[in-house]
Amino acid sequence: MLNFTPLMRRWAGWRGAKLDRLNAAAVQERHLLSLVGRARPTRFGADHDFNGARSVAEFQARVPLRRYEDFWDGYWREPFPHLKDVTWPGAMPYFAVTSGTTTGRTKYIPCSKEMIAANSLAGADMMGFHTRNRRKSRVLGGKSFMLGGSTNLIEEAPGIFSGDLSGIMAANLPGWFRGRAFPPRELALLSDWEVKVARLAEASAGEDIRLIGGTPSWLLIFIDALADLRGVAPNLATLFPNLEVVVHGGVDFAPYRRRFTELLEGSHAELREVYPASEGFIASADRGDGEGLRLNLNHGLFYEFVPVEELDTANPTRHWIADAEPGVNYALVLSSCAGLWGYILGDTVELIDGDAPRLKVTGRTSYMLSAFGEHLIASEVEAAVGAAAGEIGASVSDWSVGAVFPEQTGELGGHLYIVEFSGTGVSVAQTAAFAARLDRDLCATNEDYAAHRAGGFGMKPPEILPVPPGAFAAWMKSRGQLGGQHKVPRIILDPELFANLRSFVS
Question: Cα–Cα distance between 411 and 460 in angstroms, integer?
Fold first, then answer.
């Protein structure tokens, strides 16, 4: 296969120099006004007087913050799937199907041709960051393996399709990249995840894979299946000798870091985090592992940052890249070239101080666990789970936590962590040590949690329920959400959903 990496490196040098010269605030304001100008003829543009929106402040004064449900009920439900000139000009050709990670309800996110082009550019930038950092890269001398959902799209109406975002992007791959993408179409179309993993493991045996990417938990399932098929220990240096980069995103990586470190022993591959969403490709790591993700400033998205504690107030403060501050926990808000305007994404982020706008994902706006007033945010819980796993020398494949309420007078409520450990499992003593470290770290990082745990007055200690390997995959399968874009919910706020998980694993 012809090695395209030298061409990518030359493009990345030109592109990188251009990105480095950008004035972030000027680019974002210009980008927003361009989006607003395109959408003036739409129903949404008329409703919000886009003709009079000539600055960021004027846009914010006209467009209130909205969640997905507000757009669906107010603009999309009635004409679906024929969204023509509703919130974006022209007919919407695609809808990315996703589900809420706390409730499981299906969402249809509009995906325009402009958004597909923006996502493709963001993917090229990610590849460019890799080649800039790795001067001897040959990543495009082989194939790139993206472990996504089924590319089999549903035709909702003539010329209008819905499905996993990975399927939408696979149907619109740039011509130069199609011969370098794995898996082939007949395997990518498979929707049965278990069959798909087995077939992919078999088919990838003879392929020169240089890049592999996906959600960490699904990548681990695939790597274990591939190792079993070949009868070798799960090690990426053995399975893919020419592998250069493992692209991961979608969930907090801390609980998986130990396992991937083991998988990468002896390999010359590196980790590269990305921040893609069904609503747009937001950021990619342009430096080393753990140094933050660089915002995609001119990729069809305008970003606003709302202090998390103000999100549900009557008049929340709406910062943008010109005045947002590093180190503050913000709810991320998007306006996009697919007709999202002041859209509350549901993620929380912190900006990182530096020469270019970078961020780290801290959790979900709906992920605050506060059944008893403990006010735990996702990043605190995820970090504590990762530290607890390290305390007992174990790796976590998947986990979820929810509240358990008292059933009798005098009982205390608390949190139940359902945890799937990799390998042979953990002992009773290890489980107790895991719970103790988890509790200790949460007390150290969250004053409200510590106050409720003080003296055992308000909450009992966290309980850990270990489950066997494959338990979460089986549960997701039972819900019709196995593999691809679907993520195991971490903090489960819906009592019925948590009860369903507890019943299933018991």
Answer: 9
Q: Are strands 396-404 and 358-364 parallel, antiparallel or unpaired?
A: unpaired
Domain count, the chain: 2
Q: Let me know: does 237 contact 418? Beta carbons within 8 Å.
A: no
Instruction: Find the largest Cα–Cα distance for the chain.
Output: 72
Do both 210 and 348 map to the same domain?
yes
Cβ count within 10 A of residue 155: 11
Q: What is the signed CA dihedral for 100, 103, 104, 109, rounded to 10 degrees?
A: -30
Q: What is the mean pLDDT of the chain?
A: 89
448 and 398 together in one domain: yes
Helix, strand, or coil here: 210? strand
Residue 244 — pLDDT band, cuts 50, 70, 90? very high
- Concatenating the DSSP letter of every residue in 133-182 gives H-TT--GGGSEEEE--S----EEEETTEEEE-HHHHHHTT--HHHHTTEE
How many residues appear in the chain?
506
Give per-residue pLDDT as tens, 16-66: 999 999 999 999 999 999 999 999 999 999 999 999 999 999 999 999 999
User: Are residues 342 and 374 both part of a single domain?
Assistant: no
The model's pTM is: 0.78
Distance (Å, rounded) from C-alpha 306 to C-alpha 439?
30
DSSP string, 443-470: HHH-HHHHHHHGGGSS-PPPEEEEE-TT
| C-alpha–C-alpha distance, residues 401 and 439, integer Å | 13
**With contact defined as beta carbons under 8 Å apart, do 145 and 211 qualify?**
yes
Model confidence over 84-116: pLDDT tens digits?
999 999 999 999 988 654 444 678 999 999 999
Alpha helices (H) along 3-77: 5-21, 24-39, 43-47, 56-62, 68-71
Under DSSP, the state recorded for 73 is I
Tell me, yes or no, whether 24 and 149 share the same domain.
yes
**pLDDT tens for each residue of 397-420:** 899 999 898 776 567 889 999 999
How much of the chain is in helix, strand and coil states, percent to nearest 5? 40, 25, 35
